[in-house]
Design brief:
alpha+beta; Thiol Ester Dehydrase, Chain A; 5-stranded antiparallel beta sheet; 5 strands; 18% helix; elongated; HadA-like; FAS1-like_DH_region; MaoC family dehydratase N-terminal domain-containing protein; HotDog_dom_sf
Length: 147
């Protein structure tokens, strides 16, 4: 069983610059055809100061740490036991190329089902920009399979 004392645990804060080239690459990778995500002129014509961040891109930026899964090991969870359960994004303000975003994550819940065969770790992340304006709240739920 995962020790529930990890609930409330804050993970290391990190910041990432949003780069135009990476936004274009991501848009292509997900099959996004709207030029607003890849062409500066289209983005500006649509009222954006630069290329906007596609809806799930912040999840990629959240992983921009040397070992994004280290906290699982610290909790006694081996990555071979985990499955992606859920992902939620709540946006508060737009994010664009040229912004610097900061991620503040914490473990907000741990619970089990099926007599402990499945455990769930909920991580909430608050994202703000270079002006400390909240831009998004991310929630991820991983499922831990126990023997």
């Amino acid at each position: 069983m995962i020790d529930t004392s990890h609930i409330g645990r804050e993970l290391p804060v990190h910041s990432v610059d949003v780069e135009r080239g990476r936004l274009r690459f991501f848009a292509r990778a997900i099959g996004e055809t709207d030029a607003v995500y890849s062409e500066l002129s289209a983005a500006q014509a649509a009222g954006h100061p630069d290329l906007p961040v596609p809806p799930t891109f912040l999840f990629c930026l959240e992983m921009e740490v040397p070992d994004p899964f280290a906290f699982y090991a610290d909790m006694g969870i081996h990555v071979s036991q985990i499955l992606h359960g859920e992902q939620h994004f709540t946006y508060h303000a737009p994010v664009h190329a040229g912004d610097r975003v900061t991620f503040r994550a914490r473990i907000s819940d741990i619970y089990s089902k099926k007599g402990g065969k499945l455990e769930f770790v909920v991580k909430d992340t608050e994202v703000s920009n270079q002006e400390q304006t909240p831009v998004a709240t991310l929630r991820s739920v991983i499922v831990v399979r126990n023997p």
